[in-house]
Design a protein that fits this description.
The structure holds two protein chains of two kinds.
Chain A (H helix, E strand, L loop, with lengths): L4 E4 H11 L4 E4 L7 H12 L3 E4 L3 H13 L4 E5 L1 H6 L1 H10 L3 E7 L15 H5 L10 E3 L4 H18 L2 E7 H5 L1 E4 L28 E2 L6 H21 L3 E4 L6 E4 L2 H16 L4 E6 L1 E3 L3 H7 L5 E6 L4 H10 L5 E5 L8 H15 L1
Parallel strand pairs in A: 2-3, 2-4, 4-5, 5-7, 6-7, 11-12, 11-14, 14-15
Antiparallel strand pairs in A: 1-8, 6-13, 10-12
Helix pairs in contact in A: 1-2, 1-7, 3-5, 10-13, 11-12
Chain B lengths: L23 H14 L6 E5 L14 E4 L5 H11 L4 E7 H7 L1 H9 L5 E6 L2 E2 L5 E2 L18 H4 L5 H5 L5 E8 L3 H19 L4 E7 L3 H4 L3 H12 L6 E5 L5
Helix pairs in contact in B: 1-7, 3-4
The chains are: A alpha/beta, B alpha/beta.
Amino acid sequence: MADKVLMKGAEAIAESAIRAGCMAFFGYPITPQNETPEYFSRRMPQVGRVFLQAESEVAAINMVYGAACTGTRVITTSSSPGISLMQEGFSYIANSNVPCVVVNVMRGGPGLGDIAPAQADYNQATKGGGHGDYHSIVVAPHTVQEAVDLIYLAFDLADKYRMMVVMLMDGLMGQMMEPVEFHDWVEVENRKPPEWATVGQGERKERNIITSLEILPEGLEKMDIALQEKYRKVRESEVRFEEYMMDDAKYAITAFGTVARIAKTVVDMAREKGIKVGLIRPVTVWPFPYEVLEERANQVDFFFDVEMNEGQMLIDVKLGVNGKRPVYYYGRLGGIVPSPEEILKEFEKKMEVSK
Amino acid sequence: MKTLYKMPEAITERPTTYCPGCPHGVAHRIIAELLGEMELTKKAVIVWPVGCSVFGYYFIGTDAVEAAHGRACAMATGIKRAHPESFVITYQGDGDLASIGIAETIHAAARGERITVIYVNNGNYGMTGGQMAPTTLLGQVTTTSPYGRDARANGFPMKVPEMLATMDGPVYIARAALDSPKHIIQAKKFIRKAFNAQARDLGFALVELISSCPTNWKMTPVEALERIKNEVLPIFPIGEMKVNEGVA
């Protein structure tokens, strides 16, 4: 670890990706994440790597798909409408078992929406988004430092499972400046393409074919089952979450990303008033930490889910709690970031209701 | 004894899925011969399209990927940029390249991507049952132009090489036809130059191959080749449209 530097989230994730061994960036401009590709466009040539501004998000994700087929660490970053355009590529990438990292700096929707911070792409990211039975690993940092850390994890998990890893952020995290520590550089320049990569057969005994196509239903079912088996392993091994002040908590707030960061302040404010509340924060929103919610349901009176959407993670929280305790929800839509005071007030209303 | 004829090494033993009389096999053979002659087979990655040649990787034995419909040039860009040592070819039909994939094609050309595009134009969507394509001739009856393609309603046939030849990125652009031995020999000469363009790191190259679709044209294979000569080539004339220095 090096010294701390003060950096914007949008630029910090780019620098972290480069240090994590990302050899290629393909993307298309969209607000509120332009600082990230701009940073890549400056830095990638300096380190002899690829930066390419594509003609569209559709092209960008298919460039990512192509680069991923060579086993190269590759990334794209975009925001909600651009991510919608990429869904076709995500689906192909999933059924081709190739690794890549995608950052979605979420903005208000649907449609063109606005460019303010939002979390309304939760369902799209965690339930698939494109066609077919597939998942991507989805991580949701709540600080710039965590984003820097999770970029490393994202590339490692993408390579380990040969699948796409999505980082869900929002414009607030992108614009925020925080002191960050970067990790050591991952040495990738002399890395040989993996055995499965399509780079030309060369000395290999067998040629490699990467395809998501299998025309016989019996064959495709086998491919689908293999994918589900991979997802089962990911669910078993890669669930990550943080608990904040949960040891003696009588109530639990659930939140991810930017809202989770605000929720920590809410917890602190409530604690000062003597209210024993804690926070359960999924770090991976897929795979989702269902088990911790079910366990904590034996301890808390109720759960209070806060999001910047209409309650998309709420469904997963309810699945985890499994009917053992009430799950309340508060959220803001359209790109509005709720204040700690506002959340605490809503939380206290639920305390009244539950008495 | 002197060998007069043998299968190119890059052709696999698997029987193709193409209809009787379909020229895809001829196009495959030209590519396979050139890969062998130019010692590119083991370096090659072919990006296959969605269309009749979707299973092309079964028939040409190189490393291969299967692109989403129309995205071959974008995928090829990703492969080539990430691994410049690979020899990257896209093989696309006219629906794939000229309709849904036209943006990816034009921008790959504009960037001068070091990829080689083989563009097989049979004037309709073969695999899906013969629907109208951007290349369908005026008056031509297809399953979605049952009264014949009408310019007012459906626009005009798209001439991709003519369009790309106006750009600075491509170094070699040509159109050949697969309707006769003479034209097939010419097609191979053109594709060799297109391969040179990439092998010599000169820039983007595309060769259109005018092909037939006897099944959906509802003709015998011979009638279909006659139609190329009599009806298609007057609209889609063959020849080299852009030849930069160094590709020959």
